[in-house]
Amino acid sequence: MVETKQRKKVGIREVLNGRFFESDWFLRNRVLLLMIFALLVVNISVKYKSEKVIREMTALEDTLVELRSRSISTAADVMKLSRQSVILDRVKKSGIELETSKEPPRKIYVGKD
User: Fold this and answer.
1) 108-to-53, 104, 111, 112 alpha-carbon distances in Å
2) Taking the CB of residue 20, how many other CB atoms lie within 10 A of it?
3) Does pTM surpass 0.70?
């Protein structure tokens, strides 16, 4: 006289009216189901966090490209301003009485006493 358990099929009606949560199967596996639910919540939150980080990285990369181009253009402007002809023109416009040296630069050696 072996007793066989009669398995009930769970239908949509049992889930919707809440009787599914009173079933033996649900009561035996509630810890497992709770862990699965917690892992799903963690997975979704990690996904949203990573998408936010990727958007921030993309914005920072765009800013970096813009700053690099600005740096290159500023370096080119500084190179233009440091040319000898530009410096001579600016000295003449400012009215300072400076002249360029006709002799090339020389090294000055200081002897040790």
Assistant:
1) 58, 13, 10, 13
2) 15
3) no
Under 8 Å between Cβ of 51 and 59: no
Distances (CA, A) of 91 to 1, 79, 100, 108: 116, 17, 11, 27
**Which residues lie closer than 8 Å to 98 by C-beta, 6 or more apart?**
91
- Cβ–Cβ under 8 Å, residues 26 and 33: yes
Cα separation, 9 vs 16, in Å, equals 14
| Three-class secondary structure of residue 71 per DSSP | helix
Ordered DSSP codes for 11-31 = -HHHHHHTGGGGSHHHHHTHH
Residue 3 has pLDDT above 60, yes or no: no
Q: How far apart are CA 15 and CA 8, in angstroms?
A: 13
Residue 92 corresponds to which amino acid? K
